[in-house]
Structures are given as structure tokens and as C-alpha cells.
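To: structure desk
From: M.T.
Subject: fold request, one chain
Message: Could you run this one when you get a chance? Sequence is below, nothing fancy, just the single chain.
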Amino acid sequence: MASYKVSELTAVTSTDDASLIYVADTQDSGTSFSGRKITRGNLFSGIATETYVTTAISNLVDGAPAALDTLNELAAALGDDDDVAASLTALINANETHVDNMATLTGAAKDATNLGAFSGVTISDNATIKAALQALETSVESKGSGASLTSLTTAVGDLNALTGVAQNDEDLGTFTGSTLPDSQTIKSLLQTVETSLENISAVDTAVVDAGDNVNRLVASTSADSEPAVWKFLAVDCSDGSIKVLDKAFVEVD
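Reply: Done. C-alpha cells follow.
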């Protein structure tokens, strides 16, 4: 077989897998060479061709946007987090807690799609939060205009002023005397006053014993010795008060 110089060889662009390819084999770091021949099919067996590589890369990208078609771009999008699965799991768990808290706040069961049943008639059962708020808004606005609501607020303030206590107080506070107990409601104190008025013995004994009004006099049926000095009691008809008169004032000749 004729031999050719390397410079005389011409490249071929297509050959059959059975075609022979001659290679130089060296086992002494290039000092000497031995001729070898191998078929094209064996030489390139298992080696990816340009077409194969191009197809594989195209399938890997699979139409991904240009900003995310490389591993570096994907890593950057994930914050270069080498344990992104754990990070995402932590975020999911945190959001799950937020969801649970929101469910508790609404008073409805988790995953419920409505607020369930209500005991009144204003809000319909199984309403959403928005529908419930709409029902309340409509009901409030139907009760009166803004002016009437303002008037009502003013009246409530006046009532507070009339009671003598601050707004939102739940009792009348303290009293300086002993008849009215502290920290009572209006009704409770009215009951106390009524009881005291109907039971004169509940009034301060100093007032009762003073005997300064005919309405408080108590008759005595037992005899008494003649006093050294005579006094008479007279009733002032204008006000029912008792006047003390000396015996000489009423004596007649």
C-alpha cells in the first residue's frame, strides 16, 4: 500500500463506520511510534457528536427564559442557597403558622370557606367576612343618618355627665357617707335608699333621738313624775317643726 506524507493527505467529511483510520501509537513518550489501524465506528464509539450534544442541551433548556437558562442563573434566582430545600421548608412552616393564626382570628375553622352560623338575624349563616361586614354596614346605616348617630353619641355623653361618672364606668364609684355602699349600680343604690326610707330605724339614731319633727315623736303610755320645770311642745303648722314653750307663756289668768 502506498504511503503518503501528512501534507499530502486530504480531509474527508463523511466516512462509513467500517472505514479504517490509521493512528500512531507510542509507548515511550513519543520516542518511537508504531502504526495502528482502527475502524471509525470503534474509534468514536461512545463519544458524543456535536449534533447529540446540541440536542441534549436544547432538551435541558427546554424553552426556559434567557434569564434562567443556565445553572448559574438558576442558583442566583435561588439566592445561591446551597440548602434551598430547608430554607423553603422553613418559610412554608412559618406561613403555615400565620395561616393558623388568621384562622383563629376569624373564629372559623382552618380551611373553612365561610364564617359558619350566627345566632342573630343581621348576618346570614355561612357568609364570608366581606358579606358579614356588608350586612352590618347596611344594618347600621339603616338605623339612622350620620347626624342622628352623632346626636345619639352626644346624648350618651350627656347621660354620662348626668350620672356624675366617667364614660365606660360600670358603677357610681365611692360615697362619703355610710348609707350608700361604694361601687354600686344606679339600681342598687336606689334600692338601698328606698329600704332606708321605708325603715326609719335604719336612719342615724342621732337624728331619730333629736325629736326635731312631730313625725318622729313616739308616744309614751307610762306615767311620769311632775317635772320641776314645765315646758310645752307646740307644732308649727307651717312646716311641722316642734317648738318648745315655757309654761308661763301659755298660762292664762
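Reply (cont.): The longest strand covers residues 20-25. Let me know if you need anything else for the meeting.
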